[in-house]
Amino acid sequence: RQMRGISLPGSLAEYVALPANSVVPVPAHLSFEAASTLPIAGTTAWNALRAADVGPGSVVVLLGTGGVSIFTLQLAKAAGATVIITSSSDEKLERAKALGADHLINYRSTPDWDGKVLELTDGLGADLIVETGGAATFARAVNATAPGGTLFTIGFVTGAEATVDLLPIIIKALKVVGNNTGSVSDLKDAARAIGAARIEPVVDKVFSQEEATEAYTHMAAGGLHFGKLVFGLDW
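User: That's the sequence. What structure does it adopt?
Assistant: Structure tokens below.
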């Protein structure tokens, strides 16, 4: 599947021509800047919850405070789940708490964060872990996932190649799911859910098109933003 801004150029275009069946109505309560976060971050978060059938009583673990993690936090809380979130920043953890996160783990001061997840869940683990770390965090994520749980793998901040012990995955009957955003149908479902719950996407900073280099540099630096970075258009 070809995606503008990923496999196709044009992510900074002000206008594009698209097939009518590839666009989705914007939830009425959202600005264009907020709505721009739905096609990737919002849809990926929605697919994560669906993959694990998250609902009241579910336990969700989120690694980091980027766009997908924060969207998953908001959607998971709307679904009645308990959310555990990790970060290296206490300030970001407090912001996540304000959005409804139930338990906060600073992985700098608690490097064995998987053990903390097990402690918080009475040894059971999480029904869903949204794995963004990759090589350095995958084994801990496997350890922290409950039997029959879902490991939703969407990133590899610490590297894409890892040596994996298959035994705990097999013994616990874990579901390891990769995700490449989603379909138009997924986006429609995500938009409906976000509209129904009146979720306000977290936009950390809005850049102008003239600030594109600054925006990409800011994103590449890592660890600076909370939620999404967005380009605004002066229409």
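The CA atoms of residues 161 and 218 lie 25 Å apart.
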